Amino acid sequence: MWRRIFDGPVQWQTVLLAVLPALLLAWLAARATRTLVAAGLRRLLGDTLTTGSALIKGPLRFIGALTFLLVFAILVFPILEMTGTRPRLGVSLRTLAGWAFDSGLKVILITLLAYGFIRITTLVVRRFEHDLTLGTELEAMERAKRARTLGSVVRNVTTALVTGIAVLMVLRELRIDIAPVLAGAGIVGLAVGFGAQTLVRDIISGFFLILEDQVRVGDVAAINGTGGLVEAINLRTIVLRDLEGVVHVFPNGSIATLANRTKDFSYYVIDVSVAYGEDTDRVADVLRKTAADLQEDSRFGPFILQPLEVLGVDAFGDSAIILKVRIKTVPLKQWDVGRELRRRIKKAFDAAGIEIPFPQRVVTTRSAKN
């Protein structure tokens, strides 16, 4: 058997001396490969499956065993040749050295460049997230959520793209024909593109929805005519809960209209009806005085950003003159301020003798004639 594998006499001590380093290097390579693959699976699967799961341990063992056999088969014969043994099979030392100083260096360079680009992207994204999380106010917390969402997308897309390109370049340096891989990837991409058009549209729309800060968690918004409190903003969907507690889920790609009622500031608008016999200037003064008292209130004053605006006579109704007024408040507080303002306006009108007209009906009865 020895003569079929080697030329000339062979000593088993020499063979053992060459096999042991090859086994050690192959074991180290297999362990490193399993660690890298496990890290990639953890990043890809997240909390769905752990690397200790039976569904993951089996493929990891297979990859480790395959790497071990491949590295051992490549290294054992050049190491035997270095000890003075002339093997007839396997890769010669000259061939391995030539590949190492040619394609091997390119593989190492490609790997280092890919790893460096991914790390630089990760550091830039983390720096971006850190800068947006400065501060403790609610605005900073919302910016942090938006930065984490966008940062996760950028990191994942960059990692997948750079890793895919690097793997293809390494396969080419290993003299493996990548044309079938590219063709298969093109077919799969085409199939996914046709089958997941809606999903891709939702994700792209969600990305720009978050990037442009059109709406945030905690805002009150109306989407496609349905209003409610924004409970969650994801890359694919946005979730609203209306006043009755009903949860509405909208795919981002299906959003035709989005009205944010609590962006930066809000207005509460009131149509005030008074009788035709009332002096509108006097009514406006009473309204301003009532709103000024409300603004001085310790409970509601911090929520009011500007004094009440009396926009003027807005319409002539069947039985009333309608004045339109509005008051500027911080987001989400316009309804609390508006309800209190309405209550105070009613009391102020009663005290000032200002009539608020309402529909009346006069019923006349006739007595029966004898």
Mean pLDDT level: 79
Distance between the termini: 140 Å
Please give the domain count: 3
Output the helix-strand order.
Answer: HEHHEHHHHEEEEEEHEEH
Helix content: 55-70%
Radius of gyration: 37 Å
- Judging from the principal axes of the Cα atoms, what is the shape? elongated
User: What ranges have pLDDT less than 50 throughout 5 or more consecutive residues?
Assistant: none
Biggest sheet, in brief?
Answer: 5 strands, antiparallel
Strand elements, count: 10
Describe this structure in words.
Strand 5 (237-241) and strand 6 form a beta hairpin. With 370 residues, the protein is an alpha+beta fold. It has nine helices and ten strands. It has a five-stranded antiparallel sheet with strand order 6-5-4-3-7. Strands 8-10-9 form a three-stranded antiparallel sheet, with helices on one face. Helices cover 57% and strands 15% of the residues. It folds into three domains: 2-173, no CATH class; 209-260, Roll (SH3 type barrels), CATH 2.30.30.60; 266-352, Alpha-Beta Plaits, CATH 3.30.70.100. The chain has helices at 2-5, 12-45, 54-82, 93-132, 138-173, 179-195, 197-211, 280-296, 334-352, and strands spanning 6-7, 86-87, 220-223, 226-233, 237-241, 247-251, 258-260, 266-274, 309-316, 321-329.
Write the layout of secondary structure elements.
Elements: H1 2-5, E1 6-7, H2 12-45, H3 54-82, E2 86-87, H4 93-132, H5 138-173, H6 179-195, H7 197-211, E3 220-223, E4 226-233, E5 237-241, E6 247-251, E7 258-260, E8 266-274, H8 280-296, E9 309-316, E10 321-329, H9 334-352
Antiparallel strand pairs: 1-2, 3-4, 3-7, 4-5, 5-6, 8-10, 9-10
Helix pairs in contact: 2-3, 4-5, 8-9
